[in-house]
Amino acid sequence: MIWATRRHVHIDRTACAWLLRRFVDPAAEFVFVDDPDEVPADATPFDMRGAELGHRDGRCSFESILIRYQIDDPALERIGQLVHEADIADERYDSPEAPGIDAILRGLTLTAGGDQQLIDQTAPLYDALYSLWSRTG
Amino acid sequence: MLAYRLPRTPSTPRITLWRKLRRLGVAQIVDCVVALPATADTREQLEWLAEDVVEAGGEATIWLAEPTTSAEHRRLAAAMTERIDAEYRAITSEAQSTVGRPATERRRTLARLRRELRRVATRQHFPADQAQVARDAVEGLADAAASEAAA
Fold first, then answer.
1. Which tens digit of pLDDT belongs to each residue from B83-92?
2. Nearest chain A Cα to B54, which residue?
3. For residues B135 and B87, is the Cβ–Cβ distance under 8 A?
4. What is the 3-state secondary structure of A87-116?
5. Cα distance from A98 to chain B (closest Cα, Å)?
6. B-chain residues within 8 Å CB-CB of A54?
């Protein structure tokens, strides 16, 4: 499937891309647009205004994907809390890792050669958190 | 820039929006028109708030706007900085008044003020003179605790 999101991805969109590829659609392809009108007809938008897979009822897009695809996994839920705090920072969850991950993402934004590369570079980061939190709970 | 209109009742979405706007450190231009320096990040934040407004039955539009004079630009930036500096001053004064308190209280206050500094920093959009003063005052509490432990 083709998944569309806004250009200049940061924490929520890189984490969503990882989540989609690992748990929803292993063959996921991503396109990046400036304007919602540019979303291809056969693509599913995420983390965009008006999208079902966006910020809904105070949730970040990562959390919306977990709900939409009924993914029930405590480690992913914890990553969702991290993404929520790094993205929205409303202190709904206690995620001491959030500011650190946010800083790493900001740094990678400066060195990565574009959105696709940033998604590829951040995947091992989310894999690592997932491995850790799958073991430690 | 976000221009919005929300129904008067219920009041919960209005209060939630007000809290979120405060957390972002927006400049209030007039009632229901707020602005932030234009970056990809601030634009996204305002877009999500616009979505919240629409979901709550209101109307919201996002604009790329610029004051026509540099004087107005400076005035807006100065007002934002003044508000942030006031927040930093409150932290500084609380840190200073905690210096002579018992160690357990100082440690608690230190942890809380460090969190508060991070919160204020996320809504600081321009350089603020009081930022370093507040950070020094808060870290002064940690230094005092460390030298006591060493003594």
1. 999 999 999 9
2. A50
3. no
4. HCCCCCCCCCCHHHHHHHHHHHHHHCCCHH
5. 12
6. 51
Give the number of other CB atoms < 10 A from CB of residue B17.
21
**With contact defined as beta carbons under 8 Å apart, do B134 and B95 qualify?**
yes
B57 DSSP 8-state letter: T
The rounded distance, in Å, linking the Cα atoms of B148 and B151 is: 5
The DSSP element (H or E) to which A123 belongs, if any, is: helix A115-136
Contact of A6 with chain B, judged by CB distance below 8 Å, is answered with yes
Q: Which residue has the tokens 């940690």?
A: B142
In this structure, is the dihedral angle defined by the CA atoms of residues A59, A91, A94 and A85, taken in order, positive or negative? Answer: positive
Q: How far apart are alpha carbons A83 and A95 in whole angstroms?
A: 9
Tokens 């009632």 locate to B31
0.90 exceeded by the pTM?
Answer: no
Polymer length of chain B:
151
* pLDDT tens figures, B120-151: 998 999 999 999 999 999 999 988 777 776 66
The C-alpha angle with vertex A21 and arms to A54 and A129, in degrees rounded to 5, equals 85
